[in-house]
Amino acid sequence: MNSWMLRHRFGILLFLLLFAGNSLWLYSTRSIPITDDDIWGATAVLGTPIEVVIFTLRWDLHPPLYYLLLDCWAIFGKSDLWLSMSSCFIHALISTVAFNYVYRRHGAVAALCSTALVFCSPLLLEQSVKIRMYPFLALLSLCIFYLIEKYKEADKKSLLVSIAALGVALIYSHAIGVILLFFHFCYGFLSLQARQRRVWIVMHMLVALTALPVIANSMIRKLGHALTPAAAQIWQLFQDLLVGTATNHSATTQQLGATFNSTNLLEFVIALLLVLQCLLMLYASRDKTTRNILLCYLVLPVLVFVLLSYIVKPLWLERNFIFALPILSIMFGICLAKMPTPNWLKLTLVFAIVGINLSQSAMQNRRHPTENSFAQVIEFLQNEKQTKAKICVVAPNHVSTFWSLQRYLMHTEWGNPTDIQPPLGERWLQIREQLPESLVKLLKLRAPSHFSESTDLVIASTTVERCQLADITSRYLVIETRPFDTLNPAYPLIFANDHYQIFGQEQNQ
C-alpha cells in the first residue's frame, strides 16, 4: 500500500487539491435548497439499501446503481452540502484519471492541458455540484476508454472482464446506459485488431443482455423534459463541448460583459475560442485514433440521439453527452500539446478557456431560477408556520415539491419515502392490480400514509382527512406552475412567483 501511494503520490495530491477546490467552490456559491431532479437522490438515501432500490423502481426512470453508491456516501451525512460533494469527489477523480492516462503516454504539457480542459469542461463543471449521476457516467466512460486503450496494447483477457463489469455498471446507472455502451463498443471495434474483434463482439452481446430489464423499464416510462432536437440544440451542444458560452443565459452575458466593460469583448473571445476548437478538431482528424474518437464520441452520438428522438421517442438532452466529454477533452489536450507552437502559447489558450468556463459557471451558480423560487416558497411557509398554531401544506402536483417541502419544513431526515408516499398514478394502479400480493408488499404499493406530521405542521402529497381536523388553523396548496398543471383550487391565491403558486384558507372560513 505504501509503495502504491509513493508511486501515485502526485495523482493523489492532484485529486485532493481538485476535490477540495471544487468543494469550496460549491460551499461558496450554492446556498439554495435542493429541488427538481436533485431532490430524488437526496430523498432516495433516506431509506435502507433495499428501499433505495424500491424507491428507484417506483419513482425514477433510471436504474438504481448510482443511488446505491450515493447511499454509501450518505452514511457519513445527508446534508445538502455533503450529498452535493459526492459529485465534487467524482469530478476530481475524473480529472485525476485523465491526468494519469495522458501523462504516461504524452508527457507533462499534454497532461496539464487535458486535465485543465476536463476539469473545466462546461457541462461537467455544471454537474459537478449536483446530486445526479452524470459525473459518474463520465467516470465510467473514461475508465472504459482507458481500458480499451490498454487492451489494444496488452491484449489481456482480464482487461475484457473489467470492461464488461464497467459496461454493466454503465447500463445500471442511467436509462440510456446501453446506448452509451454502444458508442464504446463502436470505438473498440474500430480501434482493435481483427483477431480481437470476435471476442469484443461476443462480450458486448452478453453484456447487452443484462440491459433487458432496464430497457423494459424505460419503455413504459415517460421522459417529459427530453427534446426532439432542432439545429439550434445541436449547435449549442457543439459550443458547450469545450468553451462555456452565454447564449443560454443572457443575464450572465450582460453581467460578464459589465465586468469587461463591453459585451462584445467577451463574445469575441468566446467566438475566437470556438474557432480554435474547430481547428483542433480538423487537426485531430488527421490521426486515426483521434479520428475514431471524434467519430464514436461526437458524430455518432449526435446522429443516434437525433434519429432516436425523431423515430422512437424524444431523447435529446445536452447532459446525455456528458459521458463523452472527458474523452473529447483529453483528445483536445493531446492535440493542442502536439501542435508546433510554443508551450507558453498553448498554456495561455488553455488558461483562457479555463477562465471563461469558471467565470461563466460562477455566474450560473447564482442563477438557479426554480431553486430560488422554491426558496421563496419555503420562506413564505416558514413565516406562516410561525404565526399559526398548526398548518397543513399540500403539494399534489409533483413528488419533487412534496419531498423538498418535507426536507426544509420538517427536517433533512424527515422519514422514509416508501412509507410516506404520494398517491399511485394510473399506471401504477394498473400494475398493482396485476401483481401478486407478495410483490405489492415488496414494492410497497399500498402506502401506509400520504402525509407526515410534527407539532405545528402537516405536509401531505394529496388531500387527506387529517388536514380537515379542528386543530389545523390554516391550509395551503402549493402548485408548480407547469404547462400540464390543470388544478383549479377553491382556495384564494395568496402567493405566486415565476415557478410556484400557493393557495390558502383559514380553518374557520
Mean pLDDT: 86
Separation, N- and C-terminal Cα atoms: 71 Å
Global Rg: 25 Å
Helix % is: 55-70%
Element pattern in H and E: HHHHHHHHHHHHHHHHHHHHEHHHEEEEE
Low-confidence stretches: 247-262
The counted number of beta strands is 6
Structural class, judged by helices and strands? Answer: mainly alpha
Number of helix segments?
Answer: 23
How many strands, what sense, and barrel or not for the largest sheet?
6 strands, mixed
What share of the residues does DSSP label as strand, in percent?
A: 5-15%
Instruction: Trace the largest sheet across and list its strands.
Output: 2-3-1-4-6-5
The outline comes out as: globular
Write a brief caption for the model.
With 509 residues, this protein is mainly alpha-helical.
Structure description:
It is a single chain. The chain is mostly helical. Helix content is 63%, strand content 6%. Strands 2-3-1-4-6-5 form a six-stranded mixed beta sheet. A hairpin with a 3-residue loop joins β2 and β3 (457-460). α2 packs antiparallel against α6 and α11 (177-191) packs antiparallel against α17. It is globular and about 80 Å long. The chain starts with a helix and ends with a strand. Mean pLDDT is 86; it is low at 247-262.
Can you give keywords for this protein?
single chain, 509 residues, six-stranded mixed β-sheet, 63% helix, mainly alpha, globular
Topology, element by element:
Blueprint: H1 2-7, H2 9-29, H3 38-44, H4 49-59, H5 65-73, H6 80-106, H7 108-119, H8 122-127, H9 134-154, H10 157-171, H11 177-191, H12 194-209, H13 212-219, H14 231-239, H15 250-260, H16 263-284, H17 288-311, H18 325-338, H19 343-364, H20 369-387, E1 391-394, H21 399-410, H22 426-434, H23 437-442, E2 451-453, E3 457-460, E4 474-480, E5 493-496, E6 500-506
Parallel strand pairs: 1-3, 1-4
Antiparallel strand pairs: 2-3, 4-6, 5-6
Helix pairs in contact: 2-6, 4-5, 6-7, 6-9, 6-18, 7-18, 7-19, 9-10, 9-11, 10-12, 11-12, 11-17, 15-16, 15-19, 16-18, 17-18
